Amino acid sequence: MLQIQTIEYRDADALLEGFLAYDETLPKPLPAVLISHAWAGRDEFVCDKARKLAELGYAGFALDMYGKGILGSGREQNARLMKPFMDDRASLQNRITAALEALRRHRAIDPDRIAAMGFCFGGLCVLDLARTGADVRGVISFHGLLSAPGNTHGNTIKAKVLVLHGHDDPLAPFTQVTALAQELSEAGADWQIHLYGNTLHAFTNPKADDPGFGTVYNDASDRRSWQSMQNFLAEVLG
């Protein structure tokens, strides 16, 4: 039976609210997965991923980057919400670290068996978590933004890294993929990058249908990436 909880936590003065799902019948403590949302905020998409992870035997925690109850309602507002964190990556890193620490404190969670995954903007967030040298088992980026933050050069990446990416993603083009591979290698990371052909940005989101913007759902890439995620989590959290 799934246990669902909303959990308030803070990053400095910001009040945040995460969504936790886990199977209460499983022996505790549980391995857990942080889930970082796309640019609109902590929406039903990532809450549904938390439930799906709970069905796989993990605790899924959909974190909150923007603040309790804050959701974007369209492209312009989403961009305004995301921009401060893109402009100040140290702030982004502090915000996602606050979510990690909130999850670690939960009584049902094994603090030593935590991974993180994210979608679009959230993919960048979990990559930045790894770039800080955070002590997490692994991070997974689904069609994430890939640009380096500029404040983590020289850090050793402890987490294993899995990047699931559309080859034709215009928001994070192939030049950024190769730059990320170089960056991860220089940081000593154990990394994988899976590229999906004929695949654009947001390929896991069934509502994505804007070819002009470069966001289009791809059923095959969605299924393949979810299976790759399961294989990776079994390795790093098993």
Describe this structure in words.
This protein is α/β, with parallel strands linked by helices and 238 residues long. It contains 6 helices and 10 strands. An 8-stranded mixed sheet has the order 1-2-4-3-5-6-7-8, with helices on both faces. A two-stranded antiparallel ribbon has the order 9-10. Strand 9 (209-210) and strand 10 form a beta hairpin. The longest helix is centred in the C-terminal third of the chain and has 19 residues, at 219-237. It is globular and about 45 Å long.
Please give a quick description of this structure.
The protein contains 6 helices and 10 strands; from the N terminus they run βββαβααβαββαβββα.
Measured distance between first and last alpha carbons? 21 Å
At CATH level 3, the topology is Rossmann fold
Question: Which term fits the overall shape?
Answer: globular
The whole-number mean of residue pLDDT values reads: 98
Report the helical percentage. 25-40%
Cα Rg: 16 Å
Count every helix, treating DSSP H or I runs of 4 or more residues as helices.
Answer: 6
Task: Please state how the strands of the largest beta sheet are arranged side by side.
Answer: 1-2-4-3-5-6-7-8
Looking at this structure, what is the CATH superfamily? Alpha/Beta hydrolase fold, catalytic domain
Short descriptors:
Rossmann fold; eight-stranded mixed sheet; 10 strands
Q: Which secondary structure elements does this structure contain, and how are they paired or packed?
A:
Elements: E1 2-11, E2 14-23, E3 30-36, H1 44-55, E4 59-62, H2 75-87, H3 89-104, E5 109-119, H4 121-131, E6 138-142, E7 160-166, H5 174-186, E8 191-196, E9 209-210, E10 215-216, H6 219-237
Parallel strand pairs: 3-4, 3-5, 5-6, 6-7, 7-8
Antiparallel strand pairs: 1-2, 2-4, 9-10
Helix pairs in contact: 2-3, 3-4
